[in-house]
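This section describes the prediction task in plain terms. A model, or a person checking by hand, is given the sequence of a single protein chain and must write out its three-dimensional structure as a string of tokens. No templates, partner chains or ligands are provided. The sample shown here is typical of the held-out split.
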Amino acid sequence: EMVSSTCLHILRVLVDEGLVKVDTSSKRYSLGTGMLALAKSVIDTSPFPALAQPGLDRLSAAWNVTTIGVEITGLDHMVVLALSRSNAPIRLHVDVASRFPALISATGRLVAAYSDLPDQEVERRFKSLRWDNPPDLGAWRKDVQTVRRKGYSIDRGDYISGIVLIAVPVLDKNGHITHSLVAAGFSDQLTGTRSQALIKDLQAEAEALTNLLAPRG
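The expected answer:
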């Protein structure tokens, strides 16, 4: 009963702060608008968005792709901190402060490649992911191994049909992933040769950000 009372008290506080809202008819709880303000305050205190935005804008204009700056928040979620949209009518529902599962799509392969998660934990998290075209776990593991070797990740229509997502890591001074830069475009737009050229451009921006965020003494 003490636990239930504590939980109810916490819920009341969350509702009062606007972080959670309750549907009085169904008695169901959902995230409130206050959570957006909380996410915005976190973004405003991070140097990453301001540092990443000029590069994202340049890449988006040069390649006509949507570019995204993502923060890795542990092994549960990634959060969009910066965004530059292309002129193409791309089917990608993303905004600043959007959250996604940490192991999904191209950035997810980076997270798996740069983490020391036990195989059982990776498999558990992988099974909960939702894709348009779910990759086989074995094939996905091979992709992760390739990411470790090459230092970038490509999702060709697995997460969203017809959409290519390319991600490169931004690392801290210890070589751990903290953020990623992502480019999103149509499959017929980002062919093999064009993708490789874009990857080099993304990697140059990521390296510059790494030096700005975690300069090596």
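For orientation: Residues 33-38 have pLDDT under 50 and may be disordered.
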